[in-house]
Amino acid sequence: MQFLNPIYFVLAIFIGAVILFYFFRKQYTEKTVSSNLLWEQVLNEWQASPWLKNLQQNLLFWLQLLALILLMLALVRPFWLEDSLKGEHLIIIIDPSASMSAEHGGKSRFEMAKEEMLDLAGKLNGHQVTLIKAGEKNEILLSREDDPNAIRRTIDGLKLTYEHENMDKAILLAGSLSSGKDTALHIFSDSAVKNDLMEELAGLYTVAHNIGEYARNVSLQSFGTAAAGDGISAIAVIENQSSENIETGFTVQFEDEVLFEQNLSLKANEQTTVQIKNLPEKPYYEASVSINDGYRADNFAASIYTDPKPKVYTMGDVNPFAVKGFQTIGAELLQTDPAALKGFEMKGVVVAEGSTLSELPELPMIFFNTGKEKTKLKEAISGDEDPLFEYADFGRVYISSASAALKGEWETVLKSGDIPLIQRGMQNGQPIIIVNFDLSDTDWPLMPGFPIFLYNSYQWLSQQSDFLGYFSAGEERWINIGKGNGRWEIFNNKDENLYSLDLNKENFKAPVIPGTYQAVSGNQIYYFSVLLDEREKNAEIAESFTVNDKSSEKNSMIQRPNESLWFWLALIAFILIAIEWEVYRRGHRG
Amino acid sequence: MNSHQAILGKLQKRKIAAKTRKRGYHSGSRKSHKFGSSMEFSDFRAYQPGDDIRQIDWNVYGRTQKHYIKRFLDEQELSIAVYLDATSSMTKIQQKWEYAKALASALSFMVLSSEDRLFFSAVSSAGVQPIKRKGSVYSRRTFMEIQKIEPAAQSTNFLGCLKETLSKHQQLAVIIADGFEPLQDWESLFRKLRGLKQEFWLFQVQADEELTPAYSGDIKLIDSEIGTAVNVSMSPSILAEYEKRLKEHNEQLEILCKRYGGQYIFAPETRDLQSVLFRDLYAKGLVR
Fold first, then answer.
1. What is the DSSP string of A174-202?
2. Are B42 and B72 in contact (CB under 8 A)?
């Protein structure tokens, strides 16, 4: 057996009410009086008093009559036509992209879209609603939901994600979710354009609500820094997307320190390139356009100065195989002497040999452990799947003996039995790879895997620097942290703690708002930048439109019968019967 | 005790004034229509042989030379019965019971101190031995005894019991009750008393709680005598209805009482006992 309207099981509360009535019926407090003689007479008279009796009978009559009329009316199922939204099933696509953050009169396009959606939700009458958030990855927030409160809550809880909207995919998704002709598609965006896709969607009735007004937008299209000669130079491209000339200020700064400032006069619909030379070396640079246009998200860009190809320093005597290896992979190699390095500022990767890690600079390092205590290897070499050994097969490598492992917390990536051969970890907040055997004890340098291993190590060590990279809004990415502290605190450039991550358990997730951020793990500070998607760097607005509107109505409303009346009629009838029961009960008390 | 003394002092000076001409068998302080030895002159009568020669009025003989006997009226007692309703309906409310006992004891004291014969009975289904006394020597003791009467546990049907204990040879029956009985029962009692040629007084004692009940809410009223229960949802209108009903009942009882030649004295608990004894009774001419 199944139920058509299981919702009306809530009427069981009336059963509860009746039981409650039963429990809370009149409780008479007992009182002994001299004689009941007169009270009995009074009550007999009271109950027999004609007007009450008449009223009681009349009341019963009218209540019964009314209840029966209402029941009859409920059974004939009255309905009337009322304005209603077209379609049984509404699919709403919301664009959470950065351009939706453009403001007009103190309200962002996204907020206005939310208001319009709530307005739409207010007109629902038994419709099912599917809500799709058209981000880079489409998210279905509601699926055929018909609870108005849940719909309202979900709409209220929507947030911008600053990514680029993937409208085509969202429309395809909507098409696959649609249930034929009863489905209406509502798109809330700022730049939805009529395209063939919408036409193809089996004639899906589609309304695109493009929200927003024309904005006098200035966009910082790109900003980058690079080493040029001795100093660092930067370049910025600024576009005036409006049809008038605009004066604006342009600033480059690090935290609160202004490094460069210039007033620009931008011609209508033209790009202006600004070149900046000899910037002081800073962890990162923030460029911003000071004009207060409607769309703020594209007035800002950050660039983190990073050496994509750090130099390689060899410390003292290093096995010539290693030196050759680094030369093979095209790294700039500098041979140095530890004694001469005092007070010299180095930046790059260090290759060193020896039996102790002390007296070495605090830099990313490959260390060949050539300690005197050597152990003959007897067991086969086994290693983990690791980025260091990508394409570098250890299967046929022969290693005769290994030096004793150094003290420290290392992750062993290659071993023979219990003897660690290659280890890696963090030393003084810097990445380190330790090779626990002498290159003269192995035929490894003769294998093709050796330079690949060096390249992998070089990449790994340079990636393990301060700069984590550029992220798109809300991007999730796995970051190798070795066995280090997985607890990361994310701060914005105003030093506010945004959230914390445990990278041993979860992926690194970038914030959604574009800008420069710091990730603090232990005593190490990393920088990373969240960039606005290139496609979001303009705030243009498309026209709202409707497609596949087959009926003659101009708006999205349709006449729909409202059949909910019978329920209320039946409810009132029920209440009347309850009142009647009470009247009856009062009439027959003794 | 002092208040008692004051009341007793005042009561001693009063005397119950019964309208009946009937008198008891023994001598007392009340004028009798019979001839006797009181100081009250009645008439003369010719001497008949066999009369007491001491009664010959020699002054009349000296004037008329005929023997006449001078006759005096006799002074005889009055038998007065006091019936106190001691059923549960009276004893349930303490103040009402105290009031009724005080009234009964004061009347009994007045009877005894005026040298009349007292028959006192606390009428209840428990069946208490009635007090039969005469003479002012007993007056105080009886007063105290009546004050000390304890209510019987559960007792019903005052009028039924009263009919059983009713003493036939009384000139006056004083009934102290609350009157919460059907009127036809009262009527049959009154008829019986009239048949016995007894004068009767009815003191109707009612508590304030009964006259103007201050109940509210839903109350299950339980009869103190027969235990029947009535559920009443109190409301001002139902209370007004009750009060109206009570007034009607009391009025009808008074009319009934008067129709059978009795005296009706309404003595609610709120009315001061002394006012009842020294003002109401005096105004009605029931005490002198």
1. HHHH--GGGEEEEEEESS----HHHHHTT
2. yes
Give the residue from A82, A128, A120, A87 showing the smallest Cα distance to A562.
A82
**DSSP sequence for A21-46:** HHHTS--PEEEEES--HHHHHHHHHH
Whole-angstrom distance between the N-terminal and C-terminal Cα of chain B?
A: 25
The domain spans of chain B are 41-76, 79-283
Q: Give chain A's residues under pLDDT 70.
A: 25-26, 47-57, 82-84, 180-181, 195-203, 215, 228-230, 305-309, 339-346, 429, 463-467, 479-485, 523, 548-561, 585-590
Q: Inter-chain contact B220–A34, Cβ cutoff 8 Å?
A: no
Residue entry with tokens 């302080």: B29
Q: Which pLDDT score is estimated for B282?
A: 85
Nearest to B180 among A27, A37, A589 (CB): A37
- Whether the Cβ atoms of residue A536 and residue A40 lie closer than 8 Å to each other: no
Please count the other Cβ atoms lying within 10 Å of the Cβ belonging to residue A2.
4
CB contact under 8 A, B230 and A36: yes
CA distance A128 to A516: 42
CB contact under 8 A, A46 and B231: no
Angle at A364 between CA A362 and CA A367, to 5 degrees: 95
Is A339 within 8 Å of A299 (Cβ atoms)? no
Is the interface score ipTM higher than 0.85? no
Residue range A62-75, pLDDT digits in tens: 888 888 888 888 88
Q: Determine if residue A262 is left, alpha or beta; phi over 0 gives left, psi from -120 to 50 gives alpha, anything else beta.
A: beta
| Interface contact B178-A35, CB threshold 8 A | yes
For testing contact with chain B, the best of A24, A27, A42 (most B CBs within 10 A): A42
pLDDT at B254: 92
Coil, strand, or helix at residue B191? Answer: helix
In degrees and rounded to multiples of 5, residue B183 shows phi and psi of -65, -35
> Along chain B (288 residues), what's the average pLDDT of each consecutive run of 10 residues?
76 79 69 68 84 85 89 79 87 88 90 87 78 86 86 76 82 88 88 88 89 83 82 82 89 91 88 85 83
Å between B269 CA and nearest CA of chain A = 14
- Total-model pTM: 0.47
| Closest Cβ–Cβ partner in A28, A32, A41 for B231 | A28
Q: Tell me whether residues B92 and A33 touch, CB distance under 8 A.
A: yes
- Interval A218-238: pLDDT, tens: 888 888 887 766 678 888 888
Substitution target from B241, B247, B252, B253 for chain A, most A beta carbons within 10 A: B241
Helix, strand, coil shares of chain A, percent, nearest 5, are: 30, 35, 35
Please tell me if residue A588 touches chain B, with a CB cutoff of 8 Å: no
Taking the C-alpha atoms of residue B281 and residue B262, their distance in angstroms, rounded to an integer, is 13
Question: Exposure string (b/e) for B18-35, b if CB count within 10 Å is 16 or more?
Answer: beeebbbeebbebebeeb
Instruction: With beta carbons less than 8 A apart as the criterion, state whether A295 and A215 touch.
Output: yes
8 Å CB contact between A27 and B218: yes
Q: Residue with structure tokens 């390139």?
A: A273
- Decide if A520 contacts A489 (C-beta within 8 A): yes
CATH 3.10.20.30 fits B79-283, yes or no: no
Q: Which residues of A touch B178 (CB under 8 A)?
A: 34-35
A85 three-state secondary structure: strand
Closest CA to A110 of A148, A158, A154, A142: A158
Query: Of chain A residues 33-62, which have a CB less than 8 A from chain B?
Result: 33-43, 45-46
When CB atoms are compared, the residue of B89, B215, B217 closest to A35 is B89
